[in-house]
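Quick one:
INPUT:
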């Protein structure tokens, strides 16, 4: 009876139950050597985005519980990877490759410089 009541409430306020467990945070999800990750996943409210790079190997990108984002916990979660660097972040698609992250500010700076030059000539 309670389940029916909850479903009716969701219908009345036009919410899907999945939106209650989702944080709206989206992260890249892949495990590859290229850094060209295209798959995106929706995270839960406890998650952050993670990028874990094996030295001389592949990079793993995914949602991860924020409390698991520390060196000792990641070593337990990924025992086959002995030496790695990692980064956790909490904005949409923030676990992309560093080259992609650098391109946006560089392009913005170039665009600004070109517009100033164009206005003054």
């Amino acid at each position: 009876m309670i389940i029916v009541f909850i479903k009716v409430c969701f219908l009345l306020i036009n919410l899907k139950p999945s939106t209650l467990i989702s944080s709206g945070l989206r992260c890249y999800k892949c495990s590859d050597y290229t850094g060209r990750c295209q798959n995106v996943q929706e995270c839960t409210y406890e998650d952050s985005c993670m990028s874990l790079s094996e030295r001389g190997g592949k990079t793993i990108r995914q949602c991860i519980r924020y409390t698991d984002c520390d060196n000792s916990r990641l070593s337990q979660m990924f025992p086959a990877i002995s030496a790695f660097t990692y980064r956790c972040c909490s904005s949409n698609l923030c676990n992309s490759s560093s080259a992609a992250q650098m391109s946006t500010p560089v392009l913005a700076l170039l665009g600004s410089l070109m517009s100033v030059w164009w206005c003054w000539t």
